[in-house]
Design goal:
The protein is 42% helix and 20% strand. β1, α2 and β2 form a beta-alpha-beta unit. α1 packs parallel to α6. The two termini are 19 Å apart.
Length: 158
């Protein structure tokens, strides 16, 4: 799914998008807003790279970060919930991960947790293990997957 296709689909379905990004540092929002006319369907993006930003901007409980770690589905879910609540969006996606280099046995390089929320629906989350493919490649794969998540969810709305 290209950003242009996502924008066309969102426009047809009356969706308004928000993003909450950590490991991508705004690349998802950038991919969407690179397309002319994206303001019809894109409300805002939250770049919450630090744990403090996740709490301050999105309302993520510091205890959630402390308990599960910043790279967790629990934090991705809290991030996307905050993005939806603190925007005029009808759908939001969040990402938090370890782009690399680095990582640990417990949380390896290339692990990215995604959250997806839509007005009036349950929040969904998933973890993708992209592997140690390099920082740029993990970030690019994350953007591509996030755009696909948004498009799939929007296409299923009435």
């Amino acid at each position: 799914m290209t950003p242009t296709d996502l924008i066309t689909l969102a426009r047809l379905r009356g969706a308004m998008i928000a993003t909450a990004e950590s490991c991508t540092g705004g690349l998802i929002a950038g991919a969407i807003t690179d397309i002319p006319g994206s303001s019809d369907v894109f409300d805002r993006g939250f770049v919450t790279y630090s744990n403090a930003a996740k709490s301050d901007m999105l309302g993520v409980d510091p205890a959630t970060i402390e308990t599960f770690g910043a790279v967790s589905e629990e934090v991705a879910r809290a991030m996307v919930s905050g993005a939806l609540q603190r925007s005029d969006a009808t759908i939001a996606v969040s990402v938090t991960g370890i782009a690399g280099p680095g990582g640990s046995d417990h949380k390896p390089e290339g692990r990215v947790c995604f959250g997806l929320a839509q007005t009036g629906q349950d929040i969904h989350s998933q973890t993708i293990e992209f592997g140690a493919i390099g920082r740029l490649e993990v970030r690019q794969a994350t953007v591509k997957h996030a755009l696909s998540l948004l498009a799939d969810a929007i296409s299923q709305t009435a």
